[in-house]
Design goal:
single chain; BirA Bifunctional Protein, domain 2; 7-stranded mixed sheet; 2 domains; Alpha-Beta Plaits; globular; 4-stranded antiparallel sheet; alpha+beta; about 30% helix
């Protein structure tokens, strides 16, 4: 789970259903039936609508074009090519694969039902493409890229969405066979020594014990060099920096941040793979590094796209701006309309098991992409009960909404709040 999303406020609370009635009921996800249990928390309507769109199957989509540029660069410059196998096409994975096999501790925030979509306590929607790295290594891939859709229970705003696309890359090396050649290559590229930024980041992190320290440092140098070249190929005029980070399956770990105005925006995470992540078939003297980046975040930065919902918009006025026949890249997005927002508030008393993630899913299921943002604007206690007020901003990307249309959606949302989340309206 190389985190490549804008930071959001997390609520580490369980949104699992406590009722035993959920046991032995069925839920249909992507055409297959699964048994529900107390961990089930996804809304099939949201998943089905988004899963069917598959933006990466459209050659004229900006996400497809960005992915193809990444793939071409990594293949031609570094002999790192795309890995393909059937399980990549379906985002349903086991909890064991998504978390346990990748060293996620039991207390990790990513495991919370308020962060991840669970079909039941055994199966879930993948939260990162890292989940397929072990399978690719078992299949014999040594230097490869993975790409696919990943799912998280994010807040509703212009930069977060329940699904986005992630690229993962892995490079494995063998100490006895690759060390001399790697050292010669790094020396020829004049990148054998680490920059002050990386040295500073390493101070707080130990290179993995049990491995040749020189080999580990060469792998870090190789990783940093390759990823810097990738970013320069996509954003040639960017200013970036490296910082120390933490991912359960890599040690040491780093993040690359790009200067975006006065702010620094994280665009990828990386690190040396933990020994326990490398399958037994490739262990021994093998060691490697991995990275992950989110396509939507990079594409929004490259094309100046202001709203992540646009990537799931079929409006030709959006897609035509990124035609593969255009020679200039990246094309800067030109807004084709400025539809005014319509705001509505909803206030209610909550129960003790209240979780904001449930409201986000309910709103998305009720109004789809017509909701631009959802924010808590007021909270108070009265007679031992907690009252919340949320402001919903409705705005369509392709048309002007009317008050009448929004009123229908708002009333449906109020009804769904009572029937599905058991709140008391006020």
């Amino acid at each position: 789970m190389f985190i490549t999303r804008l930071p959001i406020r997390r609520h580490f609370v369980s949104t699992a259903k406590s009722s035993l009635a959920a046991e032995h009921e069925a839920i249909t996800v992507f055409g297959r039936s699964y048994e529900k249990d107390s961990m089930t928390n996804l809304t099939p309507g949201i998943m089905e609508r988004l899963y069917q769109q598959k933006p990466l199957n459209n050659p004229g989509h900006p996400l497809t074009q960005l992915w193809q540029r990444i793939a071409r660069h990594m293949a031609s410059m570094h002999n790192i090519s795309q890995a393909t196998f059937p399980s990549l096409n379906c985002p349903i994975v086991s909890v064991q694969e998504n978390f346990d096999d990748l060293c996620f501790p039991g207390s990790h925030l990513g495991r919370s039902p308020s962060d991840s979509y669970y079909i039941n306590r055994r199966q879930m929607l993948r939260t990162h493409m890292t989940v397929h790295e072990r399978e690719a290594m078992i299949r014999g891939w040594k230097r490869f890229l993975l790409v696919g859709d990943v799912w998280r229970r994010d807040e509703i705003d212009r930069t977060h969405y329940p699904v986005f696309h992630q690229v993962e890359g892995v490079a494995l090396y063998n100490l006895s066979m690759d060390m001399n050649n790697l050292q010669k290559h790094l020396r020829s590229e004049n990148v054998l020594s680490l920059s002050p930024q990386i040295e500073q980041a390493l101070i707080s992190q130990d290179l993995q014990g049990g491995h040749d320290p020189l080999f580990s440092r060469m792998l870090v140098a190789d990783m940093i060099h390759i990823l810097e070249q990738l970013i320069r190929s996509l954003l040639p005029n960017s200013v970036f920096r490296w910082t120390a980070s933490y991912f359960p399956f890599t040690q040491p770990s780093f993040e690359l941040e790009i200067q975006n105005g006065k702010d620094w925006l994280e665009v990828l995470g990386c690190g040396l793979l933990q020994d326990s992540v490398i399958p037994i078939q490739t262990k021994g003297q093998s060691q490697g590094w991995a990275f992950g980046l989110g396509l939507e975040r990079l594409a929004m930065l490259l094309h100046d796209i202001p709203d992540i919902r646009l990537f799931w918009n079929q409006d030709p006025r959006f897609l035509s701006q990124f035609s593969s026949s255009l020679t200039e890249w990246p094309q800067i997005f030109k807004p084709y309309s400025r539809h005014p927002p319509i705001c509505r508030d909803v206030s209610f008393y909550i129960k003790r098991d209240w979780a904001p993630a449930d409201l986000n899913d309910l709103a998305r299921n009720t109004a789809g992409d017509l909701i631009e943002s959802l924010q808590e604007i007021d909270r108070f206690q009265k007679d031992g009960r907690t009252s919340l007020t949320y402001r919903l901003t409705y705005r369509a990307a392709d048309r002007t909404l009317t008050d009448e249309q929004v009123n229908v959606l708002q009333e449906k949302l109020r009804q769904d709040l009572v029937s599905s989340l058991n709140v008391t309206l006020r």
